[in-house]
Amino acid sequence: MSGISGAIGAFVKGGTALWNRVKNAQTETIKLIIKSLNKGTMHYARYLSTKTEQDEFEKTIYWEEKKLKQYFEKKYSEDRHFGFHTVEAKDLAKDIEHYLILSNHHFTQEEKISHVEKIIFQSQREYIIEQPNDKKSLGLLQLRTDIKIEEIVQSLSLLTTIQEGLLQQLQLPRLEDGQEMDVIKDFRYYYNLCINFFEKNKYSECLTVIQEAFNLELSTEQCISLKFFETSIYYNQFNYDLALERILEVEDKFDREISDKFIANILGHKGSIYSEKGVKENNSGLVRIGIQCFEEQLNLLDVEEEQNSKLGYIYYNLGTSYLSILETQNDIDCCIKYFELAHEMLPENAEVMKNLGTAYGYNLQHEQEIEMYELALAAKPDLFEALCAMGMVYYIYYNEPEEAIRYYGKAVEQRDQCIRFPHAYYWLGKCYFEINLNEEAITTINEGLRVAPTQEHLLQLKSEVLYSLLQEKAEKYLPEYFQFMNKLYPEPTEESASKLIAALLLNHKIEEAQELLATFPKAIRESKELMPSYFMWAFNCVEKNDYQAAYQIIQNINPDKFDEEIKPFKDCYHYIMALCLGGLDKNEEVVEHLEIILAEGSIFTQVEIHSLLGEAYLKIENFNNARIHYHRAKSIVGEDNTNLDIEYGLFQAYLGLKRVRPARTALYKMIDLLSVPYAGRIISTKDVNGTKSQPESESESESNTDTRMLEIISGIQQLAYLEVEHKFKEAVSALREEELAKELERYREPLNRYFTSKLIVTMVNFNAIVAEDFLSNVKI
Q1: What is the per-residue DSSP string for 183-195?
Q2: Comparing C-alpha atoms, which of 85, 58, 692, 675 is closest to residue 392?
Q3: Nearest-angstrom CA–CA distance, 339 and 729
Q4: Which structural domain range is residue 432 located in?
Q5: Which end of the chain is more exposed for a tag (fewer CB within 10 A), N or C?
Q6: What's the Rg (C-alpha) of the chain?
Q7: Domain CATH for 407
Q8: What count of other Cβ atoms lies within 10 Å of the Cβ of residue 388?
Q9: Residue 6, C-beta contacts closer than 8 angstroms, at least 6 positions apart
Q10: What's this model's pTM, rounded to 2 decimal places?
Q11: 155 and 77, same structural domain?
Q12: Considering the domain boundaries, does residue 246 fall inside one?
């Protein structure tokens, strides 16, 4: 195999590494960015449709995704801290506006940049939402708390006819066994039972009592109070539909006697129900109804008379409602405004500071964002959401997973929070994984799977970490890996099959890999996910000269499966097929595969492709085509940058064509190129006094130099014989042995003299002491 072929073979051998580059985190990030930009574009296009009265506006606005991908690849290569979600939209818009196509629309440059800026802003939000995170730990949801009995009592105290019942707690007499309790079961009795049961979170018993109470003849305010209890119970149980139904029934019973303060309280509860129901159902319209309720609540209150804490929580509810939608810049501005007002009213409230920080983050005010998270943790060091937020700051903004671990580690200590929001385990495990603390990562992931056994991102991360551990401690983790993968994928999938086969190959379990592969259906065997394993497997067989086995493995690959994402593997496929077929002496088919690489464009350079084809044509003795391809390779690199592979190929091609003069030129060029490395090879075996040094183990480069030297010596002999043939033509076979030897020496002598002269110059330049001794022993 030539030097070029060997280099390309090494590339193919690294197929798994290439696959990882195709599927790595940066590539996935760029795909997510483009996906987010497309979503943001569609949202904005629908908005523009209403302004331009064009029903299909979104069909005429799109991104040049290939160029966009190249832009972000370059951006990440130049700045590893670049973040799509943190960059200023107006700055990015200037860079990428020319990749946005606006068909049939005429905008000035300034107008187009303005449109792109708005698209980027919307897309940044889509990007954050698409991250593998839950909304709680990311801070998109309200920091929701259950309604307490004190709030209910305080609200109902605003109903005049209920006040007496609140002031008189019903005292039930203690009875002896067998005695019946003589109690009047009036409204006051049921009302106080509701308070007792609600306070103890016995919601079912409380609802039963309420239903019994409705059998009484009740006043309007008494009905309102019971339905308010029902509303609070359903709200605490996250049953927003029933909570909304009951609170609307409360409103239906309002009359002139109901105070504005009580109505304001009801509006606040209704706003919370609408807002949280909207978030749960991803319905921004419901959230906006909730916002309207909170604003009406403020209008009914005398801001000057109200306590700061009450107003602060209303502002907080408005801020969190806006935080859950953020469809426009106005939403962000309102969100920040209300959180800042809430912060003024509730300066020690950690939840307010945390959500204000999140709002600043969406407005790309990252210094203020981080400051708020720090203040929140100073006020409440164990606030789960703030710990997760700071972990994200250090992982995403600062690229410091070690520091992020400190915050995520504290977050996962709160088991009650992690049961509902297990992504803290995911990010902690990911940080450990990124700094190669794989055993700590797997411990964290397993802990997360204890509380969330079906959490998709944790399961996916576990498969990646276990796969990495296989390369460190195969005997320990291979059984666990197989057990986990078979449990995760009861039926084989393309992804699971590729991981299992790769695991066996990495651990040199070839027979087991063959047996497992045979159990997969054809669709999985031909999937692109298995290609890296096939390449690695086949090339290992080629290195052992087992071309038949390599050929059988590569036959599993369906060339029709190559798409744009993994196009580099198409070239690898044809190259390995060429290697296998060459080893099986099917050289005509070798040429076919290499011609495909040349015709379709390649990950290989044009020089490499032409050199490969030249080598292939030499093997089938098509010397003219070999000459053409080697000559094209040389014309690309230029005379001054030619190499031994090209010149040796040209030499062999001209020998085959029986063209003496160009063959001699190529041989001279080979001598020129080899003289320096060969002289260095000899010098390395002698000391300055000309005596031989102790022999050392032969390196690959030294072995290659010796091989090239033999090629030149053989080439001198071949060229001399060709010149003799030209002189005597058919009569050469009639020459006696001594006559042939004499003629060969006549033509070898100038070639030997040229080689010796080149070595003299080279050796003198290297080491004059060694040169004389060396040249006296050169025999060609």
Answers
A1: ---SHHHHHHHHH
A2: 85
A3: 99
A4: 387-476
A5: N
A6: 40
A7: 1.25.40.10
A8: 30
A9: none
A10: 0.63
A11: no
A12: yes
